[in-house]
Design goal:
- By secondary structure, the chain is α/β, with parallel strands linked by helices.
- Helices cover 43% and strands 13% of the residues.
- It has one domain: 3-Layer(aba) Sandwich (Rossmann fold), CATH 3.40.50.720.
- It contains nine helices and seven strands, in the order βαβαβαβαβαβαααβα.
- The structure holds nicotinamide-adenine-dinucleotide.
- Nicotinamide-adenine-dinucleotide binds at residues 16-17, 19-23, 41-43, 66-69, 94-97, 118, 145, 147, 190, 192-193, 195-198.
Length: 284
């Protein structure tokens, strides 16, 4: 077995939603492991910060303002990536939006359409144009960001749940259509990750306490805690892994009926806060 399986030297990786949260942490991690990183996102200022961070650490990065729900934008992003870096080896289709809690009976069509077009159609469009290129070169690895909401329901999140279940379906279909070519497609299903998307959950003290009490680790993940799985799935270490959904949720989805811990929840929370994951600043 090779010793350097997680090495992206001279490889080109595309990350959507790379301006913030999980996407930014993963873009930085790919760059740290040698990749040229192309970023597609709506948020120009924040995306520029990500590319500047990568370049300041000696990496290569480009950004194109992209709405993943727009076919022409996605096509242009992939063309620019290939022209600038000479190819496309891996993609992390991660851009996404959430919606305010609304039961199905009160969920408006505009919200439903917006979430489906970014979270589901966006992944479809990225897959479509990435695979057109990868099928020509006969290699590639793709990770789509789903969610634990792609595996189980979440009351008040119907559009998001539907989109993320759809992402898992797209992942399996893309995997089976391309396995014979050696192109692999998998999905990441995070639990609660502390990003701008979930900032409101932190700011609402009562909700935050409920969330922490329900989380087996009594905390949300830091975005950097998602990057190991994405890099692994895109690397040669995962050369026989395709069509699967990988849950990274601190044991959230396997919790049973009984209380999580024998010790007092407040005591457990303090212990976990003390141990809280501290990301290592990226170095090159
Ligand atoms: N944070 C969580 O708890 C959590 C849990 C499960 C899954 N996820 C998923 O992880 C992914 C990343 O989310 P995050 O938590 O890092 O949130 P985030 O808000 O920090 O990042 C989302 C990124 O997507 C970009 N984006 C939004 N709409 C876009 C569009 N139409 N075109 C291009 N870019 C667009 C945003 O500008 C932002 O950079 C999403 O798909 C989200 O659904 C997040």
């Amino acid at each position: 077995m090779q010793s350097n399986l997680i090495d992206f030297t001279d490889k080109t990786v595309l990350v959507t939603g790379g301006s913030s949260g999980i996407g930014r942490a993963t873009a930085l991690a790919f760059a740290k492991h040698g990749a040229n990183v192309a970023i597609g996102d709506m948020n120009e200022t924040a995306a520029q910060e990500t590319t500047d961070l990568i370049k300041s650490q000696g990496g290569k990065s480009l950004f194109l303002k992209t709405n993943v729900a727009q076919s022409s934008d996605v096509k242009a992003l992939i063309e620019k990536t290939i022209q600038s870096f000479g190819g496309l080896d891996c993609a992390f289709n991660n851009a996404g939006v959430f919606h305010p809690p609304l039961m199905i009976n009160e969920l408006d069509e505009a919200t439903f359409d917006r979430v489906i077009s970014v979270d589901l159609k966006g992944v479809f469009l990225c897959l479509k144009y990435e695979l057109q290129h990868m099928r020509k070169t006969g290699r590639g690895a793709i990770v789509n960001t789903a969610s634990i909401a792609g595996l189980q329901p979440e009351a008040g999140a119907a559009a998001y749940v539907a989109a993320k279940h759809g992402v898992i379906g797209l992942t399996k279909t893309a995997a089976i259509e391309n396995a014979h070519l050696g192109i692999r497609v998998n999905a990441l299903a995070p639990g609660w990750v502390r990003t701008p998307m979930t900032k409101e959950w932190e700011e609402n003290q009562e909700f935050n306490e409920k969330l922490r009490a329900a989380a087996p680790m009594h905390r949300g993940a830091e975005p950097e805690e998602m990057t190991g799985m994405v890099l692994y799935l895109c690397s040669d270490a995962a050369s026989y892994v395709s069509g699967q959904t990988f849950v990274v949720d601190g044991a959230q989805t396997i919790r049973g009926l009984l209380p999580i811990e024998v010790e007092e929840p407040a005591q457990a929370q303090r212990r976990n806060d003390a141990r809280q994951f501290q990301p290592t600043p990226p170095t090159h």
